[in-house]
Each structure stands twice: as C-alpha cells, then as structure tokens.
Amino acid sequence: MAEWSMLTLVGEDRPGIVAAVTEVLFASGCNLGETAMVRLGGNFSMMLMVSRPTDGCALDEKLSSVMERFGLQLHQSAIIGELHSHLQPNLQLVVYGADRAGIVASVTAKLAEAGFHILDLRTDVGGSSRDPIYVMEIEGYADQEAAELEQRLEPLRQQGVEWRLSTIDLMVG
Amino acid sequence: MQILTYPDPQLKHESLPVERFDTELQAFIQELEETMRAGPGGVGIAAPQVGRLQRIVIVDVSSARKPVPNHGRMVLVNPEITQWKGMAVGREGCMSVPDYTGNVIRAEAITLTAKNEFGEHQEFQCEGYEARAVQHELDHLDGLLFLDRLVSRHRDLFRRKVYQ
Ligand SMILES: [Zn+2]
C-alpha cells in the first residue's frame, strides 16, 4: 500500500507553479489525493495529499529544482490518508464585516460551542486598505437546528458583523 | 438491481422513448423503485442508472429529511419539461457518483408532461427540491451527470435559498 504525505508548498505567485510541481510528482510515480491550492495575498499556497510508492524516493530532492526555480518553501508530513470518506456539510455560513481583529475567532468560538464541525473555511479581504471588508465562508455540519445556531450568532450583529446561515439541502438522485 | 457507477459508459448514453406500456414495463418500474428506495438517501432514479436505456424515471421527495412541497411518488415515462422558471444553486449528489457532491444550477420551478407506467398522460408543476430532483433524473436520460453541470463551490453565482 502506498504511503501518504501532506505536502505544503508556498511561494510568490507566478504562472506555471502548479504545472511544474505536479509534473515532478507525476514523473516520480506519485498520485495526488485531495488538494487545495489558492492565491493568498499574492502568495501561492498549495496543500497536496500525495501518495508515493514505497521506494524511499525523497520528494524534497525530486522537487528541489522546481522549488529553486519558483522560490518555493516545502513542508512535508506523513499522514494517514483517508479517501472516499467525505463528511457531508448541512450548513453554510457567510459572514462579513469591516475588517477587525478577532472576527474569525469570535465567530468560530460560537460555532465550536454549538458543536459545529467546520469542513471548509475561507476568508478573504476586499474593499480598500482604508476601508477593508472581511468576508468569511464556512461550510460544516451540526446536529443542531439552524434556528438554534442563529440564536447563538445573534449577538455578533451588535459588533457590526453581518452573517447569513443557510441549510445545504443535498439532493441525491 | 445494481446501480451503475461512473465511468460506466451506459451512463453517458442517450435513452430511447418507451413505446410499449405492458406488464414487463410495469414490473421493471416496480423493481426500479425498490432499487431507488434501497439506495442511500436517493429521492430519484433513472432507468439508465440500472443499465436500461429507456426514458423512465421515478422521483419521490415525500420523505426528504426536510419536508418540501411534493407530488409523492411520480413515475415519469417519456417526460418532457415544457416550462422553466427561475434559477437556483443547490448541492447535488448521485447514486451513480459515490462520495462526491457539488453545486449545480437548476430551474426553480418547472412544468412537465409525462406518461405513467400505464401509458396515461400526466402533467406536473414542480418547484424547489422536487424540481431539482426531476431535472437531475431527466439529465440521466440524455446521458448527462451532475458532474457535467458543476459550478464553483466557492463562488456562488446565485444566492442560495435562505433558511427561515
Ligand atoms: Zn443521478
């Protein structure tokens, strides 16, 4: 059985990074599992679940020329890889407000109290440097009714945080 | 009956209209319904999902987790959508595409005509969740999977229906 690693690569965003990295992985006999790659503040960050054949091939060595070419930093950790076991989100929360410290912490604290399991979270900063707008999108699972969660989140409005909770009604056919 | 899963090529084929409404058809439809009800949370099924390339689907959202407007058990043979209204993004999965779900844009309300298993003409007006299920199943008859209609999970083009 193949071993799984989580590779994290970060560097200044430049066209061609994904193609160059995945080409090396493919040529080394690796398979990709689930990945997330996104541009964050002008940096390109990649998280890749990679299975490598157990021939002891050192991925950092194989990737070294690409890392040098694009100025990438690599972190590698052995993980227990679990594919084909997605958890299905039933709630989506969109939050926005004027940029302020602690918005992520205060919202996620309320969610954690409610036993809300975060499956996907993205934050972004729009607006201008004078008037930034902070936007957060969360998908997750909770046993609680949406109305109960809404009650818990209600106090955030007094702090100038706007939010909208909606159910994700999966249709399987 | 066994549900075919992607990449079975039969799922990408166009299905043919039903011409004979006989006991064989009725027996098949009963088996198809049993297969749908045995599946994991399936609220609809199309004949090509079990390898029969004919224009037959069953939809029943009456036991969906959250109660929604519905017509109960609908057997739709040779169905045609005649009117579409509105658009909405919703999360879909498919018994033929295990362990993957994604966002798809569908009409919010539809009018459709179809025969039932006895060849009798019927007309339905469906909305919301039921309309989504019908459109998903009818796609199967044209060899289309929800994967062919995926839109971004992170950049919704339309606002999702708000919980109230
Ligand atoms: Zn399907």
Give a short synopsis of this structure.
The complex is a heterodimer of chains A (173) and B (164). Chain A contains four helices and nine strands; from the N terminus they run βαββαββαββαββ. Chain A is α+β, with helices and mostly antiparallel strands and 173 residues long.
Shape of chain A: globular
Biggest sheet of chain A, in brief?
4 strands, antiparallel
CATH architectural group of chain B: Alpha-Beta Complex
Radius of gyration of chain A: 20 Å
CATH architecture of the largest domain in chain A: 2-Layer Sandwich
Rg of chain B is 15 Å
The tally of helices of chain A reads 4
Structural class of chain A, by secondary structure, is alpha+beta
Largest interface: A-B, 21 and 34 residues
CATH superfamily of chain B: Peptide deformylase
- The first-level CATH class of chain B is given as Alpha Beta
Bound molecules: zinc ion
Structural class of chain B: alpha+beta
pLDDT under 50 segments of chain B (min length 5)?
none
Percent of sequence in beta strands of chain B: 25-35%
The fold-level CATH name of chain B is Peptide Deformylase
SSE map:
The complex is a heterodimer of chains A (173) and B (164).
Chain A: E1 3-12, H1 17-27, E2 31-40, E3 43-52, H2 59-70, E4 73-79, E5 91-98, H3 103-113, E6 117-127, E7 132-141, H4 146-153, E8 161-167, E9 171-172
Chain B: H1 23-38, E1 44-46, E2 56-59, E3 74-94, E4 97-115, E5 121-127, H2 128-141, E6 150-151
Antiparallel strand pairs in B: 1-2, 2-3, 3-4, 4-5, 4-6
The structure holds zinc ion.
